[in-house]
Amino acid sequence: MTIHPRVAEVTARIRARSEKSRSRYLDRVAAASKAGVRRASLACGNLAHGFAACGVDDKAALKADVVPNLGIITAYNDMLSAHQPYETYPELIRKAAREAGGVAQVAGGVPAMCDGVTQGQTGMELSLFSRDAIAMAAAIGMSHNMFDASVYLGICDKIVPGLMIAALSFGHIPSVFVPAGPMTTGLPNGEKARIRQLYAEGKVGRAELLEAESASYHGPGTCTFYGTANTNQMMMEIMGLHIPGASFVNPNTPLRDALTKAATKRALAITAMGNEFTPIGELVDERVIVNGVVGLHATGGSTNHTLHLVAMAKAAGIQLTWDDFSDLSDVVPLLTRVYPNGLADVNHFHAAGGMAFLIRELLEAGYLHEDVKTVWGQGLAAYTTEPKLEEGGAIVWREGPRESLDEKVLAPVAKAFQPTGGLKLLSGNLGRAVIKISAVKPDRHVIEAPAKVFDAQDQLLAAFKAGELTGDFVAVIRFQGPRANGMPELHKLTPTLGILQDRGHRVALLTDGRMSGASGKVPAAIHVTPEALDGGPIARIRDGDMIRVDAVTGRFDVLVDPAEFAARPAATRRDEEDEVYGMGRELFEMFRQRAGAADLGAGVF
């Protein structure tokens, strides 16, 4: 397969840029591998503590040190619909490990918050930083040096990136990511969005809204729209960290359980005790990272991954930049229409051909590197197959579909929905930002309008309720960056801005905060860096300044005399006590102080 010239070029420059940092990382992985991950390195007292609670057979196996031990890192809690199915996974994994001649133990649990619950609430200010807290918690679980391989049970927004960072910090240990799948289809996403807008306009009450939301989010599994959680699953598969076809099988089905057992056995097969040793630190190279970015663009995935992929790559010694995202977006076609980029949900995507068809199309068109390591032990072409359950419960992987079963949801490259990807980099006299255009109508790709400036999303909502938001405008929401308040998502603004757009106004959002992974039809220049708290240009915008957001040329600017704009003092944030206390925010002060810029992944490591 011939790789696309742009994909080859971007991959080569990432490799060159990362040569020193990647080399240092691989040296650390090699040293750790040489030191050994087997329990023989533990003193007898250490080892006795490590298997004290095991059953007789598992204890004997661990004493003898002749079988691999699998560490389970779980993000289970039963408040998150996506993570509730993980309650039964440890026992399922332990049984599968014994069948394969190994042992499995829960190494540790990590926190898992739901952005759907905290969206628009104070707790959202902990959301981004939960990624790094998850990485730290997972590292504690793996630090016992009891494990030859690991499986990571996590799905949702910051959880998978946090688990990835942890796995890469233990890069000498093979790691397999195990999903639980999406919930079955409920209330159509378009109908849910319609009722949200009616509620924002005061045309329906809370009871009607809650009924609609409950019919949409109605059971175990990920939310069915294509936000960050389902983008995570696409990415883990296209990067070769799931077993083939694992991402979008519904929870609590025979195939789902069979896939979990297969993932367990595969993790045990790739330890240093066998012949297929595949440490994750060697698996995740610059080609795998580029494959992840290509998948993001081809599916119109979550804007959050312009932060997370940068941080994940950094954990492997790979230096990924927003320019890499942008240059790949210019050539990778958009192949999916899943809400909010369309009306379908991920179950429809899976039924139309899903990951097998998507990966085949991208491989044959030269957009993906096929010659990569994967946890499946073959190149990426193995991921063009899909699992089928045979009589008796065994899985066979058969060739996936060569034609889409619904081209309105999943298109071949020859009939792409648009020739470029779903995300675009913006730069200009306001700094740098990201915009998602896959769900934005072409006549909204350029917005030029006066600024209306707010220091919090609730201020904008209050102005809307007071009837103050009329005409065309660019809503500037500042002091929402990682160092200011943890960079919360501002998805709460979507219905309000959608209403104004539907009324015929030309509106856009410009913020140093984040938008939801479900960013929709309103153009939004987000992740603006430098952020306002650091004195970035966004802090000098005033009401009435003309702002131009141009997703066609990739620019965003304030159209004010440069000398006058430069001479303006930057606005300062009110430092009221209630802005940093409550809902645990005070515990994350050190994270805010240490947080990096958005284009560097907004991390604390």
Describe this protein's structure.
This protein is an alpha/beta fold and 605 residues long. It has 23 helices and 14 strands. Strands 7-8-12-11-10-9-13-14 form an 8-stranded mixed sheet. The chain has a 4-stranded parallel sheet with strand order 2-1-3-4, sandwiched between helices. The chain has a two-stranded antiparallel ribbon with strand order 5-6.
Computed structural class: alpha/beta
Q: If helices are DSSP runs of H or I spanning 4 or more residues, what is the number of helices?
A: 23
Number of strands: 14
Strand percentage lies at 5-15%
Helix content: 25-40%
Q: N- to C-terminal separation?
A: 38 Å
Output the strand order for the largest sheet: 7-8-12-11-10-9-13-14
Q: Stretches where pLDDT falls below 50 for ≥5 residues?
A: none
Biggest sheet overview: 8 strands, mixed
Shape, please?
globular
Q: Radius of gyration over alpha carbons?
A: 24 Å
- The number of domains is 3
Mean pLDDT: 94
